[in-house]
Amino acid sequence: MTSATIDDPSQRTIGDSFAWAVRQLRAAGIDNARLDARVLLETATERRGGAILAWREQPLSDTQWQRFAADIGRRRAREPLARILGEKEFWGLTFRVDRHTLVPRPDSETLVEAALAACPDRNEEASVLDFGTGSGCLLLSILAERPRFTGIGIDAAPGAVAVAQQNARRLGLIDRAAFVAADWGAPLIGRHRLILSNPPYIPDGEIANLDQEVKNFDPHLALAGGDDGLTAFAAMATSAVGLLADGGTLIIEIGATQAAAAKRCLEGLGLAVLEIRQDLGGRDRCVIARTL
């Protein structure tokens, strides 16, 4: 074996290929080198289920090796595993992702929890609006839990809208979900029981300091929140005020230091802020408000 590849095809067994990949990823500073190598090896060999190393002596075909080596190269370059796989689990569901969308993050499940707590009746009929829908993970997770809800997802990126539509079809929710390419200020009609958003909230000056896996691979449009990180927040909240039903709930994801400013913004728009909800890491994650 060489440090960059396995030149001898006879050495391209599952076991040797796995060991090679782990060394490559560790050398690149990947924390979960063994896990990532195993997942990518399962993908290349189409042997899912976590038992790939039970076939350690089995050789890889040229096609399998080429895909595996290419994927390890992408991971060495710090491309997130979910982007290589093209999918990510969120709220127990699997969502397709691509270059147009953020990768759904576990911290954002806090918004789903808050939404379900605000709408506890599974038999309620209600409408949900999701600004900056991306992969559709927030909206579709809620529709999966509330069978009589319908929803609309809005995103400025047509590519993201296409991905969200695909996810709705894959999850069997397309009959209750619609997706529209539009920005925050687009003229919309109707009143909604629940409005959600994970807007861009990274201050523009901080993007260069983000982890490589974020700044190099997440869409810039979904990160950049203006000088203070709250430009998109304020624009979305302003639009949301006129679209909330009486007694409706607004839930917006925020950065860990933005709670006070977010609260002032919403109260200035005439909303009652009910809660700043924290994620499992104890960081402020979303602000919850309601019409007066």
Key features?
two-stranded antiparallel ribbon; 292 residues; 36% helix; alpha/beta; 9 strands; seven-stranded mixed beta sheet; single chain
Write structural notes for this entry.
By secondary structure, the protein is α/β, with parallel strands linked by helices. The termini are far apart. Helix 1 (14-27) runs parallel beside helix 3. The protein has helices spanning 14-27, 33-45, 62-76, 81-85, 109-118, 137-145, 158-170, 212-215, 231-241, 259-268, and strands at residues 87-90, 93-96, 126-131, 149-155, 177-181, 192-197, 244-253, 271-278, 284-291. It is built from ten helices and nine strands. Helices cover 36% and strands 20% of the residues. The model has no long low-confidence stretch (mean pLDDT 93). The longest helix has 15 residues, at 62-76.
Q: Note the total helix count.
A: 10
Low-confidence stretches: none
Q: Which structural class do you get from the secondary structure elements? A: alpha/beta
Q: Would you report the number of β strands?
A: 9
Strand fraction? 15-25%
Helix content percent band: 25-40%
- Report the radius of gyration as a whole number of Å: 21 Å
Outline type = elongated
H-E string? HHHHEEHEHEHEEHHEHEE
Largest sheet: 7 strands, mixed
Strand order of the largest sheet: 5-4-3-6-7-9-8
Question: How widely separated are the two ends?
Answer: 68 Å
Average pLDDT for all residues: 93
